[in-house]
Amino acid sequence: MSYRIPDSLIAEENAKRAPALEDDYAALGRQLERRGLDIEAITAKVAAFAVAVPTWGVGTGGTRFARFPGPGEPRNVFDKLEDCATIHQLTRATPTCSPHIPWDKVSDTKELGEHAKALGVGFDAVNSNTFQDQPGQKLSYKFGSLTHATKAVRDQAVAHNIECIAIGEKLGSKALTVWIADGSNFPGQSNLDHVFDWYIESLSQIYASLPADWRVFLEHKLYEPAFYSTVIADWGSSLMAAQTLGPKAFCLVDLGHHAPNVNIEQIVARLIRAGRLAGFHFNDSKYGDDDLDAGSIDPFRLFRVFNELVDAAERKAPGFDPAYMLDQSHNVTDPIESLMVSAIEVQRAYAQALAVDRAALGAAQDASDVMLAHRLLKAGFQADVSPILAESRRRNGGAIDPVATYRASGYRSRKAEERPDTAGSSSGIV
Ligand code: LRH
Ligand code: MN
Questions:
Q1: What is the mean pLDDT of the chain?
Q2: How far apart are CA 14 and CA 357, in angstroms?
């Protein structure tokens, strides 16, 4: 029987921290009340907030230079789901995971679904992969996949995406995320217009295979692995494609997929306006698509994104139903600790955005009172909402301090015993 953290240990660890939490929660409640905000209303929303964990994120990630696996690496998707379940057990913020095919492909998908159910984990959007060649694959994706100049390659990539939908259906997913690496490294290498035609031609076939209640999420990315042009490089190309394909096509925003200093929250506002915001791959970055932990480099940016999301929810923006997922690579930390902390930092940005006095902000904006408007927004970001996050975990049966409780459990060293090092286990990215 593989080790699971006993709920009694969580209760024990919580008992040590409950008095301090009650104190801090009451103090924050009084502080927010003075600003006309009800802490209970915020806590209730935070307790209902969920972000999906990437199955590919629970193994140690790497770069093209190296990967330094840690002890107890997940050996296969069954181990990955166990670790996803542990993240949810402690944070109560990650009830679903986002699978990646074929990295998570198994011979018996039904068995995988039952394993996940037994662990109390569900499935969010399924991700296709035509950015790598698989062993035994007939045609290579070296020069592209859904937009390859050769129709047979495009058809092979379309077939893979349709297979991902079939697998996702068995697992209970309701969306397919399509990110393609297609692009060029040399001016002249590809016709920048033809490739978009082929993208629409291929996605139309995938779109036609979507079950009635499914959505397709188009993920744009400025560059990498293509370093001169990328077919779906920005939100404009993604939105053009979504609007061409039909009402079930939406635009997914991976925070790391933009040029430095791009105003991502404004892109979010525009996609909400168009009714085409699919949702997010949350992470953080300083230079390129660094896939660092969400909120670790620029938490104010994450807050500004959530400010747009809370505003859209409050004004009941038509078609507003974003999917929240993490997409990170954990090269130097225990992936479970990084994913727990990242899920909490995403919740923190949400709670801070809920701690903005929106009526006063709107009035200051309408009065062009620049400094008052800015300070009203910053007041949300500057509120230390940690007691709200901990209290929502405690109420949901999670750990007041997930990282401390995880460490107290010895989960990682138990997994190191259970999961003998399998050289070259490709659990993380690369
Ligand atoms: C591309 C990406 C995409 C995933 C991959 C693992 O950079 O963000 O979402 O398929 O990372
Ligand atoms: Mn992504």
A1: 97
A2: 32
**Pairing, β 277-282 against β 323-326:** parallel
Encoded tokens for 358: 């929106």
Q: Which residue has the tokens 């699978």?
A: 99
CA angle, 416 then 417 then 418, to 5°: 95
- Average pLDDT for runs of 10 along the chain of length 430: 95 98 98 98 98 98 95 97 98 98 98 98 98 98 98 98 98 98 98 98 98 98 98 98 98 98 98 98 97 98 98 98 98 98 98 98 98 98 98 98 98 95 52
Residue nearest to atom 1 of ligand 1 (CA): 179
Q: Which residues lie across from 284 on neighbouring strands?
A: 292
Q: Whose CA is nearest to atom 11 of ligand 1?
A: 327
pLDDT of residue 262: 98
CB 194 within 8 A of CB 150: no
Instruction: Give the separation between CA 399 and CA 94, rounded to whole angstroms.
Output: 13
DSSP 248: T
Query: CB neighbours (10 Å) of residue 357?
Result: 17
Q: Is the CB of 221 under 6 A from ligand 1?
A: yes
Q: Which residue, by CA, sits nearest to atom 9 of ligand 1?
A: 179
179 lines ligand 1 (CB under 6 A): yes
Using most ligand atoms within 8 A of CB, pick from 55, 281, 291, 427 the residue to mutate for ligand 1: 281
Give the gyration radius of the chain's Cα atoms. 22
> Residue 379 C-alpha to ligand 2 middle, in angstroms?
31
Beta bridge partners of 97: 53, 123
CA separation for the pair 289, 222 (Å, rounded): 9
Cβ(289) to ligand 1 under 6 A?
yes
Residue 264 is predicted with a pLDDT of 98
Ligand 1 atom closest to the Cα of residue 254 is 8
- Residue 23 alpha carbon to ligand 1 centre in Å: 42
In the prediction, which pLDDT does 9 show?
Answer: 98
Q: Is the CB of 254 within 6 Å of ligand 1? A: yes
Which is nearest to 334 in space by CA: 403, 263, 235?
Answer: 403
